[in-house]
Amino acid sequence: MTVPELFRRTAERVPDKPALLVKQDKEWTPITYGQLAERTRGLALGLLELGVEPGARVALISENRPEWATTDLAALSIGAVNVPLYSTLPPPQVEYILNDAGAQVVVVSNQKQLDKVLQVRGNLPGLRSIVVMDPPSPMPEGVTAFADVVARGTARPDGAAELQRRTQAVKPDDLASIIYTSGTTGAPKGAVLTHDNFTSNAQAAAEVVGMPSEDTFLSFLPLSHVFERMAGHYLPLLAGSTIAYSESIFAVQSNMVEIKPTIMASVPRLYESLHSRMQDGIAKQPEKQKRMAEWALKIGGEYNSRVTAGERPPLLAALLYPLADRLVLSKIREKVTGGKLRYFISGGAPLPVGTAKFLTSLGLRILEGYGLTETSPVICLNPPGKARIGTVGPPVQGVEVRIAADGEILSRGPHIMQGYFNLPEETAKSIDPEGWFHTGDIGVLDPDNYLRITDRKKDILVLANGKNVAPQPIEAKLKASPLIANAVLFGDRQPQVVALIVPDWDHLKQWAREQKIEEREPEELVKLPAVTKLFRAEIESNTRDLADFEKVRRFTLVSRDFSADRGELTPTLKIKRKVVAENYAEQIQSMYGGRGEG
Fold it and tell me: How confident is the model at residue 182 (pLDDT cuts 50, 70, 90)?
């Protein structure tokens, strides 16, 4: 099946059902499936008027909004290829991707994104048209308003017949998108994905989560990332569900309460933030309410941990849970999520076990999955009623997984990309002659075929004594501390493991006030001997069960968190270990030179 065929079937089945919700003038405005189909038809024909032919690259630089969905569906309906870019990319990276993909048209959201393209337009010989959703005044020369392109297409007299002909000519094996990996190392590479890659993966994921058309999905991760594009775009469109676009990353919490979503996907950072805020909120309650909440969470943990895994809960927990839920847990869920959430889906990075257990104890079902841009993206997903915390679930339907001799996770099936665009040697390194994609992740399969990720193959630290240390599980242990917001380990070819630690400033400042320490700027606070002693004790407490060679021997407290703006994080908040090492080379070297702060 192709993406436009998937959408057409849904639009014809539920034309009056809200497909999209967008907040305008403090009100959530619906766009029905019938209206979305009409807008898609107009834009698709308008793109033909701009000279877009099958196989042409249509780049898209925009935040999540209805025009993103319209542009994707329109381009794919006429056999063009969507090349999505993160709206946070700077002009040089925009230039690189547009040139590498050979983009003929670029569609941008607003003045900010338009300026990036205009800044590098002289270096883009293949770019023929620039379209802007929110047109500035005056309009720059050579730029067309999005609404004007739609109007031109809508006015085309042979529109319906021509679009039908074009859409029917699109085949499942045709190229649908080139998605450039944000990459934790090196230049971005374009993963070549077909219509069948997307639609087969959407159908396989839908088999697991069982999305009905009554679902409402809150979309806030960037649609330029394959995780959101599948979970927050194709999957709801397949089911006929409603997609609500969050106003911003900062409005997610309030939007959840307003929209009352039944399903949403996120990277672990959101869930960790919810976990931390809810724990803090409980800790600040009067003693009686605090004890009541702790009791309810204990009962909820005993009950929901078993129910989530498809097991029978203990008798006492089963008897007490309705009371705990009515008095405490349901009220927390309503305050935090709107009260109707069926599932959280977690992906993009490892989910801390402590966070998963806490949310589960509240009665929030969290399904952790696993995949990559190159796999469209879903490889594994925990099934409702049989979820296992600490794993990413079994492979979805049609997907094969095996573990190589060195522990690397390999996958094969209809979800695997066609290769990296214009990089045959890189493709050959990643996909072997038998069709197995080498993920670069290390993991193990349990007897029931549930996969557990242990680390990135390239991140494994090989100490000077030959011992191998997997940093991510240790970093997760450290971040379980309320005092530690982030942690990155180093030690490759060195005698011991060291760490850069980012304090959680709210908790650290609270501790400092309790200790009667004069208020200071972060740069001064992290240098205090008392603070160093505090974090040394915290690190030792959270890593007692590690082997001696795995333990953090020295650490440095840094006064600011890692940032995507400085290149230290990917757009989905994964650590770029190499960049962090470069940015903090002096501090890391000082730890090995015997002058570290820990």
Answer: low
Question: Does one domain contain both 84 and 208?
Answer: yes
Q: Domain boundary at 457, 485, 506, which?
A: 457
Chain position carrying tokens 């009623």: 385
Instruction: Check: CB of residue 264 under 8 Å from CB of residue 292.
Output: no
Say how far apart CA 32 and CA 11 lie, in whole Å. Answer: 9
Instruction: State the average pLDDT over residues 9-17.
Output: 97
d(CA 361, CA 329): 8
Domain count of the fold of the chain: 3
Q: Are residues 258 and 404 in the same domain?
A: no
Give the mean model confidence (pLDDT) for residues 7-27.
Answer: 96
CA 230 → CA 11, 85, 218, 220, 522, distances in Å? 18, 16, 13, 13, 40
Q: Which of 265, 282, 297 is the C-terminal boundary of a domain?
A: 265
Q: Sort 148 into a burial class: Cβ within 10 Å, 0-12 / 13-18 / 19+.
A: middle
Average pLDDT over residues 414-435: 97
Q: What is the pLDDT of residue 212?
A: 81
- Which is nearest to 478 in space by CA: 449, 460, 498, 461? 498
Q: Are 91 and 119 in contact (CB under 8 A)?
A: yes
In which domain, by residue range, is 307 found?
267-457
Beta-strand (E) ranges in 262-341?
263-266
Does residue 271 fall inside a structural domain? yes
48 lies in the same domain as 177: yes
Which secondary-structure segment (H or E) carries 503?
strand 497-503
Are 473 and 346 within one domain?
no
Residue 597 has pLDDT above 60, yes or no: no
User: 348 and 416: one domain?
Assistant: yes
Task: Let me know: does 56 contact 104? Beta carbons within 8 Å.
Answer: yes
Reduced 3-state DSSP string for 71-109: HHHHHHHCCCEEEEECCCCCHHHHHHHHHHHCEEEEEEC
- The CATH number that applies at residue 407 is 3.40.50.12780
Do 382 and 494 lie in one domain? The reply is no
Query: Helices marked H in 170-233 — which ranges?
Result: 195-209, 226-229
Q: In this structure, is residue 528 part of a structural domain? A: yes
pLDDT of res. 598: 54
Provide the token pair at 118: 């205009």
Q: Are strands 451-456 and 437-445 parallel, antiparallel or unpaired?
A: antiparallel
The answer to whether residue 314 is domain-embedded is yes
Structure tokens at 46: 């308008």
Cβ-based neighbours of 311, under 8 Å, separated by 6 or more? none
pLDDT tens digit sequence for 215-271: 999 999 999 999 999 999 999 999 999 999 999 988 999 999 999 999 999 988 899
- The answer on 251 and 274 residing in a single domain is no
Token output for 325: 């839920």
Q: Which two tokens stand for residue 282?
A: 């409980």
**598 inside domain:** no
* pLDDT classification of 457: cutoffs 50, 70, 90: confident
> Tens of pLDDT along 368-391?
999 999 999 999 999 999 999 999
